[in-house]
Design goal:
This protein is mostly helical. The chain folds into two domains: about 10-185, MFS general substrate transporter like domains (Growth Hormone, Chain: A), CATH 1.20.1250.20; about 195-410, Growth Hormone, Chain: A, CATH 1.20.1250. It has helices at about 1-5, 15-40, 50-70, 75-95, 100-115, 120-130, 135-155, 160-180, 195-200, 205-235, 235-265, 265-285, 290-320, 330-355, 360-375, 375-380, 390-410. It is globular, with a radius of gyration of 22 Å.
Length: about 400
């Protein structure tokens, strides 16, 4: 049953490799969410947002560095070094006083580097352990489980810096132990094509997907501070709680649903539907910006879009576009830049958004709608990454099953 649902009929993928690749990403994402949450609670002062900028910069730099080294060093060594580095960074930061500004700068840089360095290799390994027909549902399941796991961790942990770091260190050690116990045999792949970063960026299919991804990340990161500022000015504390708690949970649910649907009808259709739905929601909000019902609807649709886009643009598309035998690490490294780059820009916008008037905040909604619809244009020319043969096979299978049911009904 496990192989039938998660590994489908691909006999080239071993269960040990699939489990180990999933555990590595699950362990890393939950570890990073815990660390990010404790840094957020320690840096309530908006003037300290520069530390988040350092964190995002370190992630981008280390991801590119890790992808570059991946072509020269075995993937196994990178992954083991990466996990051990996470343990050492967690242990080291337990000794630092977070009330000292230079210490927080160092912590942001260390955690950013220890997260980003091995992510391209772990995502490339996961892509090698999935196929076109199951990559969407496996990615949706992995993202949902990782987010819920970190949510449960944070729900039971206090905001004590030492306690969270201690638990995160143990958790990272457990990830290393699991990796050693499973002993995957096919981490290494023969590299037949060594694409450069420049050649990847100049590839038409890659560019047509990465541009909408960048536009969405920028719109979401820049628009969100204005939305929260407007809610605070209006005294809508209920909306703020909804945005912080329920919107991510909605995203988790639709990450699972979106991943499954993407394996059935294709990635492109799912992504376009997400952009159009979010663009229409912001357009409606622009017409009635003072109606708080539209705020909740927009937040819910934004959560749906985030769940779908995170799975598609982080875990699925770059695995589809990078053929087996290519250096997939570089695809994942470049594909992750829009997320962290936009988040970095959002941090700098945050202080300005807290001081704007309601009228200025309202003006952000039609602009968001415009750029979201603009993002659909490249997608219209982008190729479908799920092979047409797979879609046709599934449609034919559904037709046969439907025909059997009709026949059984009249027999």
């Amino acid at each position: 049953m496990f192989r039938k649902y998660l590994l489908a009929k691909d006999s080239r993928i071993s269960t040990a490799d699939f489990v180990s690749s999933s555990i590595i990403i699950f362990n890393t994402l939950t570890w990073f969410y815990m660390i990010r949450a404790i840094i957020t609670s320690a840096l309530q002062d908006p003037n300290n947002l520069v530390f988040f900028a350092l964190l995002d910069f370190a992630i981008i730099f280390s991801s590119i560095l890790g992808a570059f080294i991946a072509g020269k060093v075995k993937r196994t060594r990178i992954l083991y070094f990466w996990v051990i580095l996470g343990v050492m960074v967690s242990l080291f930061t337990m000794l630092l006083n977070i009330d000292v500004a230079c210490n927080m700068s160092l912590i942001a840089l260390l955690f950013g580097f220890s997260f980003g360095f091995g992510m391209p290799s772990s995502l490339a390994y996961f892509a090698d352990c999935t196929s076109f027909e199951n990559r969407g549902r496996n990615s949706g399941l992995l993202f949902s489980v990782s987010f819920l796991g970190s949510f449960l961790f944070l729900a039971f942990l206090s905001e004590n810096w030492f306690e969270v770091l201690f638990v995160s260190t143990i958790w990272r050690i457990l990830g290393l132990i699991f990796l050693l116990l499973i002993k995957p045999k096919n981490i290494e792949k023969e590299i037949k094509e060594r694409s450069s970063f420049r050649s990847i960026l100049s590839t038409r299919s890659f560019t047509l997907f990465v541009i909408p991804w960048l536009l969405f990340c920028l719109v979401d990161s820049i628009e969100k501070p204005y939305f929260i500022s407007l809610a605070k000015m209006s005294g809508a504390t209920g909306f703020i709680a909804f945005d912080e708690i329920f919107e991510p949970l909605i995203g988790v649910i639709f990450a699972l649903i979106g991943g499954f649907i993407a394996d059935q009808i294709g990635r492109k259709k799912v992504i376009i539907c997400g952009f159009i739905s979010l663009g229409l929601t912001f357009a409606a909000l622009s017409l009635a910006p003072t109606t708080q019902v539209f705020w909740y609807v927009t937040a819910a649709v934004d959560g749906i879009a985030w769940g779908i886009f995170y799975v598609m643009f982080v875990l699925v598309l770059w695995g589809d576009l990078s053929p087996p035998g290519s250096l997939r690490e570089k695809y994942f490294a470049v594909g992750s830049i829009p997320f962290f780059l936009a988040e970095l820009m959002g941090k700098f916008v945050y202080p300005f958004a807290q001081e704007v008037s309601k009228e200025t905040a309202y003006a952000a909604f039609p602009l968001a709608s415009f750029f979201l619809f603009l993002a659909v244009l490249p997608l219209m020319y982008a190729p479908e990454t799920l092979p047409e043969k797979k879609i046709t096979e599934r449609e034919l299978k559904k037709y046969i099953e439907k025909a059997k049911k009709i026949r059984e009904k009249y027999d």
